[in-house]
Amino acid sequence: MVGEEGAFVLGWDEVLTEEELSVTLKVLCMSEEEFKEYKEQDGWEDDSEEEENSTLSNEALSRLKTPCKKLLYDSVLLTLESYGADLKAEQDLLNNKEVYKKLSRREQQALHVRYGQKRILHQLLELVQ
């Protein structure tokens, strides 16, 4: 359901892999009985029109049902734990000009990417609390 990468792509304003995330949340938040019924009815294809008309904007994420919000929240926490440093440490490193200048160009770019990823994840945490 999540594609070859095994991850969802989030932007500042919306989920970029919204169909995959929407289906995944729907399935993971179903009871076993609901899932069996959904599978038997070939629900995978019946919902395509519904999903095309709904976007997972930040506003829509904040309106998700509680089980889906909890699942996303816990997933984001696990993802953040996989990083070596927290958002504050990355921000401090970016703000420390002396230390930042000592980093190679590649390390500086990686720092900016990690910091951006963490900011998006923290924003998602706020949306689904």
TrEMBL record:
Keywords: Methyltransferase, Nucleus, S-adenosyl-L-methionine, Transferase
UniProt record, GO biological process: methylation
Acidic residues: compositionally biased ranges: 43-53
Highest taxon above the source species: Eukaryota
Subcellular location: Nucleus
Domain Rubisco LSMT substrate-binding positions: 4-121
Single annotated GO MF: methyltransferase activity
One GO cellular component term noted in the UniProt record for this chain: nucleus
Stretches the record annotates as Disordered: 38-58
Chief location category: nucleus
Protein name per UniProt: N-lysine methyltransferase SETD6
Organism: Aegithalos caudatus (Long-tailed tit)
